[in-house]
Specification:
Blueprint (H helix, E strand, L loop, with lengths): L6 E6 L10 H10 L2 E7 L3 H13 L3 E5 L11 H13 L3 E10 L7 H18 L3 E6 L2 H10 L5 E3 L6 H9 L2 E5 L9 H9 L5 E3 L21 H12 L3 H16 L11 E4 L2 E4 L19 E2 L2 E2 L8 H8 L7 E4 L9 H13 L4 E5 L3 H5 L13 E5 L5 H8 L5 H13 L6 E7 L6 H10 L3 E5 L6
Parallel strand pairs: 1-2, 2-3, 3-4, 4-5, 5-6, 6-7, 7-8, 10-13, 13-14, 14-15, 15-16, 16-17
Antiparallel strand pairs: 9-10, 11-12
Helix pairs in contact: 2-3, 8-9, 13-14
Length: 460
């Protein structure tokens, strides 16, 4: 049974008359397609009031308040005061927006757009709320104002820039929101952004009733079509739509404070067609690049343990998974620190016919004071070992190994020995800036094992 699909449409305008005739059916279609939450975005005073009202009436709705750059001529003192009061009046008001610059249609004077945008950016800081940014044909000017205002918390709505601009936005701390335009045949630029941006920084949106995805292009957009965008992102990233939904829902929760995802700790968690087992948060090393020092989530799964599970608890968490190609011992810790549990669980799962993989730092022999690889023979089909450096000095700096120079030599010895006991052995290296990947590859090949590069910004 596949995991439940959970999506959040992080930018919609469902207060428009377009939705009045089939309102209940529209909500039902959204639920049928996995959309569990919607952020209703204010674009002027009237729609900001409507967004707040809808959020108070419907559990699945959250709201934002702001004035679109097309309408900044209405942003006088009274309007700004009302926006401030609307934001304060609702616990479900999660951001200020949409606000920004639009130099494509130029429906408002640019100097007024800039001035009002700056006022809203300062308001977001005053209220400690993220911003929802509209930017069209004003990429660098938009970013200059965001930087000048000291904003590091928000989303570039309906992203339309190139990969270089996306990276600048990410460096500023902003999320990138992907609309249905990613399905348009000519939009290779946005698909490149999706392929290259860390999934943990992407959101999904419809911007409905605008920008319907293929095959509904030219017709009214609606929240249910968030699924089409999610499916496109999944295909671009080689993930399942459930993976994309879970990750982007977590992202929306992190940015907007929306508790709409399962935040319970996972002992067994699925990514693509693999089931991962999280049995310890302890590690042999303390790697400088390890993501757990920022947070304990991987692809939308919370891996922070309050205790280490035993055999019965872990097997109960595993259950009877279907559509699984392999079971992987890999959490935010070194599984082989719990060698006896690994052997016990692997033996039970092999009897069920599952393929077993271990992701390891390769220091188990040093930890246990013996060659443990013969104990894994017949239980483990493949092992991936984090080499991460071409020499002991680099390894020591990156990985803070407690074994000193012996740490790197221990990994090399482990990799050299592993093929005698495990059919598939791969050395991996994370693309930390400054580390020579080709030198790492040469080390792996000299040890007689395969080599794989892992992207520095991509977890899991």
């Amino acid at each position: 049974m596949r995991p439940q699909l959970t999506l959040i449409d992080t930018h919609c305008h469902v207060y428009y008359p377009d939705f009045q005739a089939d309102w209940e059916q529209m909500l039902a279609r959204a639920e049928e397609n996995g959309v569990r939450g919607m952020v209703v975005v204010g674009a002027d005073l009237a729609s900001s009031r409507q967004a707040v009202a809808l959020a108070s009436q419907y559990e699945m709705f959250y709201c934002t308040v702001g004035i679109h750059p097309h309408d900044v001529l209405q942003a006088d003192e009274a309007a700004m005061d009302e926006i401030r009061q609307l934001a304060r009046s609702s616990a479900k008001c999660v951001a200020i927006g949409e606000i920004g610059l639009d130099f494509y249609r130029d429906r408002s004077p640019r100097d007024i757009q800039r001035r009002v945008f700056d006022r809203f950016l300062r308001l977001s800081r005053e209220l400690d709320k993220p911003v929802v940014i509209h930017d069209r044909d004003a990429h660098q000017e938009t970013l200059v104002q965001i930087r000048a205002a000291g904003i590091h918390n928000g989303v570039m709505h309906c992203f339309s820039g190139d990969l270089d601009f996306a990276r600048q936005c990410l460096e500023q701390g902003l999320y990138i929101s992907i609309p249905g335009t990613v399905t348009y045949p000519s939009n290779d630029q946005l698909r490149e952004v999706v392929r290259s941006t860390p999934l943990e920084r992407l959101l999904l949106e419809t911007d409905c009733p605008y920008l319907s995805p293929v095959p509904h292009r030219g017709k009214r957009n609606e929240p249910a079509y968030t699924r089409i965008t999610a499916e496109t992102v999944a295909k671009l990233r080689g993930l399942t739509v459930e993976d994309v939904g879970r990750i982007t829902t977590m992202n929306a929760g992190r940015l907007f404070g929306i508790p709409l995802w399962d935040s319970s700790t996972k002992l067994a968690y699925q990514i693509r067609n693999a089931l991962y087992l999280n049995i310890t948060n302890r590690c042999s090393n303390s790697c400088t690049f390890c993501a757990k020092f920022d947070e304990f989530t991987v692809k939308g799964h919370n891996l922070l343990l309050d205790h280490e599970p035993g055999f019965d608890e872990l097997m109960a968490a595993i259950g009877q998974p279907k559509d699984i190609d392999e079971v992987v011992f890999c959490g935010f810790g070194e599984s082989l620190l719990r060698l006896e549990l690994v052997k016990q669980v692997a033996a039970a799962l092999k009897k069920r016919g599952y393929r077993i993989r271990i992701n390891s730092d390769g220091q188990a022999n040093l930890v246990h004071g013996r060659n443990i690889l013969p104990e894994l023979a017949g239980l483990v089909d493949s092992i991936s070992v984090s080499l991460n450096a071409p020499d002991a000095a680099t390894y020591g700096t990156l990985c803070n190994t407690p074994f000193g120079a012996a740490g790197f030599q221990g990994i090399c010895d482990f990799l050299r020995e592993a093929p005698h006991h495990i059919p598939e052995v791969t050395a991996t290296a994370v693309t930390v800036p400054g580390v020579d990947m080709e030198a790492c590859r040469r080390v792996a090949e000299s040890l007689g094992v395969q080599f794989r590069v892992r992207e520095y910004a991509e977890v899991g």
